Amino acid sequence: MKNTTSTQVMQQQIAKVIGKHVYGNLNGIEMKSLTDLNALTKLVVDSAKAGNLHILELITKKFSDVNGIPGGISVIALIEESHIALHTWPESLYATLDIYSCGANTYPDIAFKYIVSKLNPKKVKSWSADRGN
Amino acid sequence: MKNTTSTQVMQQQIAKVIGKHVYGNLNGIEMKSLTDLNALTKLVVDSAKAGNLHILELITKKFSDVNGIPGGISVIALIEESHIALHTWPESLYATLDIYSCGANTYPDIAFKYIVSKLNPKKVKSWSADRGN
After folding, report:
1. Cα separation of A25 and B132, whole Å?
2. Residue of B nearest to A82 (CA)
3. Is residue B10 in a domain?
4. Residues in Cβ contact with A131 at an 8 Å cutoff, skipping those fewer than 6 apart
5. At what angle do helices B37-50 and B108-119 cross, to 10 degrees?
6. Less CB within 10 Å around the terminal CB: N or C of chain A?
7. Considering the domain boundaries, does residue B13 fall inside one?
8. How far is A67 from chain B (nearest CA, A)?
9. Domain range spanning residue B94?
10. More confident residue, B57 or A66
11. How far is Cα A120 from Cα A27, in angstroms, rounded to an integer?
12. Domain count, chain B
């Protein structure tokens, strides 16, 4: 009984973390949708609003052109609830997207679908992972 | 035959993206290992070196204390090859880690193991995902 009680106390002390991570690989996107840093940044900002996620800080990067093909873009958001990361490869008409949020009242799946609907890929592979404790 | 040839041409035009994502949920970490912003930032920087990943920019955040328990930390790195994200929940003795890198000569699994070895969790659940096209 003593061990059981100790375990119960331990479980009470460890706060539950709810973590939901939705991510995917998006193939067959029009090149012009993958090269505009401002438009992709706005897309991430708008997706956060859609998913009830709160951006604290953004990092953006436009990579150099290669052989006349526009370079890729990365947009990463530190959000109060964890992070959003969008990376693009215009030369491959390809992007990947991660939306990972903690808290019961966040909707990473809605934020994910929002971005997918705007990028309009021909093919999407997506997964979700439980990032809770 | 015409269709086959068209497909072959299409495949030649689309550059191959190699993307490797290793991520995990780390339970049972000593609280003091989860609260030191400078130490956790150094850990991410050192893990990047271990995995041949190149940091372009870092975002760090220390969240507010709650009821006398130190707040969590987020360290997110935009790397040339994609991103690293470490989030901690001291109140739950818990952290999550994502290392996602592109390119044949990157070793996200080594970077992942480096951080895990330093945080020394009692329990690790980890996964890997193919983020290539």
Report:
1. 7
2. B87
3. no
4. A17, A19, A20, A21, A82, A100, A102, B25, B96
5. 150
6. N
7. no
8. 13
9. 18-130
10. B57
11. 9
12. 1
User: If you average pLDDT over residues B42-55, what whole number do you get?
Assistant: 98
Tell which of A37, A57, A59 to mutate to test the B interface (max B CBs under 10 Å): A59
Is A107 an interface residue toward B (CB < 8 Å)? no
Say if residue A15 is exposed, middle or buried (CB neighbours under 10 Å; 0-12, 13-18, 19+). Answer: middle
pLDDT tens digit string along A68-120? 999 999 999 999 999 999 999 999 999 999 999 999 999 999 999 999 999 99
Neighbours of B49 (CB within 10 A): 12
Site from A79, A89, A102 to mutate, B interface, most B CB atoms within 10 angstroms: A89
**B76-79 own/partner pairs: CB under 8 Å, 24+ apart:** B76/A59, B76/A76, B76/A78, B76/A83, B77/B44, B77/B45, B77/B48, B77/B53, B78/A59, B78/A61, B78/A74, B78/A76, B79/B48, B79/B53, B79/B54, B79/B55
Q: Inform me whether the C-beta atom of residue A94 falls under 8 Å from chain B C-beta atoms.
A: yes
pLDDT tens digits for range B64-95 = 998 899 999 999 999 999 999 999 999 999 99
- Residue A64's identity, in one-letter code, is S
Share in percent of chain A as helix, strand, coil (round to 5): 35, 40, 30
- Say which of A33, A47, A82, A101 is annotated catalytic: A82
Residue A4 lies in a domain: no
Residue B107 falls inside a structural domain: yes
Mean pLDDT of A8-29: 85
